[in-house]
Amino acid sequence: MEIIEQKMDEYFKWIKQNYKYKQLDGSTEITTPFRNHLNDFIRIYLDILPNGNIRLSDDGLTMSELEMYGIDVETKTRNKLVNSILNQFNLSLENDEIIADVKNDSFAQSKHNLIQGILKVYDLTLTAKSNVSNIFYEEVYDFLFDEEITGTAKVAVSGESGIKYTIDFILPGTKTKPEILLNFANNLDFNKITSDAFAYRDVKHNRPSRNNLDSKMVIIANDVDNSISNRVKQAADYEGVSILNWSNKKGILKTLQK
Predict the structure, then answer these.
(1) 171-177 long-range contacts, Cβ below 8 Å, gap at least 24?
(2) Element holding 153 (H helix, E strand)
(3) What are the sequence ranges of the domains in the chain?
(4) Locate the DUF1828 domain: which residues (predicted)?
(5) Do 246 and 223 touch, CB atoms closer than 8 A?
(6) Closest to 153 in 3D by CA, of 56, 247, 220
């Protein structure tokens, strides 16, 4: 226990020594020992409000740097993530500033919450890398829901070979319209189109149909962040697979609603 207390004292001493303060016009800039994704020290700002209360904020730096990093926090999915983080740490967002209003004697907790919230929001930089595919999928699902495109998500279907495939979304057929097997692709490369085309060939004649129409295979592809090569388009045409560009929402609706 003594060793733990000693090490904790060392940690608190290090924390205290590595905070820096700078008086600005109307506010105090606090440089913390915590770093963001660019390895820069996180800065927060203390303002005294007209009513005497204390307000802590990041002065809009976090959202500005995410934008510079190429991350659109206005997408529905990322917006949900940001709001969830703000609620978790009792923070608010005003004019792109992340804010913690200090209540009574809660300065220490409010400052801690603000720093934790900023670090958590900076984690959205990961959505530009390893998690971006999941983000894209959620955005497409949200789009289909908002536009009231009815169907079933994440359906396991069997092919003639007996192999089972997961289709991202299936729109049921009607008396005059074929069933649509809808997959999403954040990066529609040749491997992805080949894989989806193989599944389509194996599945389409094995699908139950009351209108005697073969199912159609459609892929919604993220052409905003990743280009689609001519080789991929040629392979899709050859296999009878339709590619819908995410940048053309009207085109997607026209195909899915007709």
Answers:
(1) 171/256, 173/209, 173/210, 173/211, 173/213, 173/215, 174/211, 175/211, 176/211, 177/211, 177/213, 177/258
(2) strand 152-158
(3) 2-128, 132-257
(4) 32-121
(5) yes
(6) 220
CA distance 168 to 165: 10
Question: Minimal CA–CA distance to 173: which of 220, 207, 206?
Answer: 207
Please state at what angle helix 76-88 crosses helix 107-122, rounded to 10 degrees. Answer: 160
Q: Are 229 and 221 in contact (CB under 8 A)?
A: no
Cβ(111)–Cβ(56) below 8 Å: yes
Q: What is the pTM of this model?
A: 0.61
The residue type at 67? E
Are 189 and 178 contacting, i.e. CB atoms less than 8 angstroms apart? Answer: no
Q: Are strands 180-185 and 164-171 parallel, antiparallel or unpaired?
A: antiparallel
**pLDDT for residue 145:** 93
State the pLDDT at residue 164. Answer: 85
Instruction: For residue 123, give the DSSP letter.
Output: G
Query: CA 42 → CA 9, 58, 62, 201, distances in Å?
Result: 23, 8, 9, 53
Check if the beta carbon of residue 152 is closer than 8 Å to that of residue 81: no
> Torsion over CA of 194, 199, 201 and 207, rounded to 10 degrees?
-160
- CA 4 to CA 51: how far, in whole Å? 42
CATH 3.40.47.40 assigned to domain 132-257? The reply is no
For residue 70, with 0-12 CB atoms within 10 Å meaning exposed, 13-18 middle and 19 or more buried, which class applies?
exposed
Provide the CB-side half-sphere exposure for 75 (13 A, CA).
Answer: 21
pLDDT less than 70: residues of the chain: 1, 126-133, 258
Instruction: Report the mean per-residue pLDDT for the chain.
Output: 87
Structure tokens that stand for 185 in this block: 């692709």
